[in-house]
Write a structure and sequence with these properties.
Layout (H helix, E strand, L loop, with lengths): L4 H12 L17 E6 L5 E6 L17 E5 L4 H14 L2 E5 L8 H5 L3 E2 L3 H6 L3 H6 L4 E5 L5 E5 L2 E5 L12 H14 L4 H15 L12 H11 L1
Parallel strand pairs: 3-4, 4-5, 5-6
Antiparallel strand pairs: 1-2, 6-7, 7-8
Helix pairs in contact: 6-7, 7-8
Length: 228
């Protein structure tokens, strides 16, 4: 984050959630990255991103064997690659959300245990087969209200989304990826983790905003219980 009001605001939110902030880096020269979001009457969004200090994000360090390392592409790809190299050396799991959409090197793909593209991103990446041939163990294609397709060990499985009334889809993908990573780190099996991720993504569409819409673990479990 930058050394500015936006950075301090994000720091205070994370502190309020009792998150370990030891890995946060403060850039003295760049402002905190921002996103300008326009939401239409159906809850769909268009986003303009100003990267700011995201461009100065260094690779992750101090990775343990039981960790799950989750990354996306709003930071330098070199930082993602080096973080995943460190994760592989530590025996940790790696998850990549390839957004914003970009072409990815064979090296980076070979370092990914799980890749989570949407329908547009999987086309740009050359399809599921290309990712699997590059060494990706699991591909999860997100399809919004249509749910997800899971490609794992030669099998494709479809899981439906949870039925909610969306007001703003901003942050739904982030909630999905975060809930998936947290669930896998907690020891949940892949399909159960995907179910929890779907619940997290669905809940994020029911509240306006990005950070305010991110659901808690209790909210995720409540939605799953109510839908079973």
């Amino acid at each position: 984050v930058g050394d500015d009001d936006a950075g301090r605001f994000l720091h205070s939110i994370a502190s309020g959630e009792s998150l370990d902030l030891a890995g946060i880096h403060i850039s003295p020269d760049e402002p905190t990255g921002r996103a300008l979001i326009v939401v239409d009457h159906l809850g769909e969004n268009s986003i303009i991103v100003v990267p700011g200090s995201n461009a100065a994000c260094p690779p992750a360090t101090n990775i343990g064997p039981s960790d799950v390392v989750l990354a996306q592409l709003e930071i330098p790809i070199s930082a993602v690659t080096n973080s995943f190299i460190a994760a592989r050396e530590a025996g940790a799991m790696t998850i990549l959300n390839p957004a914003p959409a970009a072409e990815l090197s064979a090296e980076l793909l070979s370092l990914c245990d799980i890749v989570i593209p949407n329908e547009h991103e999987i086309e740009l990446l050359g399809g599921v087969s290309r990712l699997q041939e590059a060494g990706v163990k699991t591909v999860i294609v997100t399809k919004g209200a249509a749910g997800i397709d899971i490609y794992h060990e030669g099998v494709r499985e479809q899981l439906p989304s949870f039925r909610v009334t969306p007001v703003d889809t901003t942050g739904a993908g982030d909630a999905f990826c975060g809930a998936l990573a947290a669930s896998l780190a907690a020891g949940h099996e892949l399909n159960d983790a995907c179910l929890r991720a779907l619940a997290g993504g669905a809940l994020a569409t029911t509240t306006h905003g990005a950070v305010p819409s991110l659901p808690s673990q209790d909210e995720i479990e409540s939605l799953i219980a109510a839908s079973s």
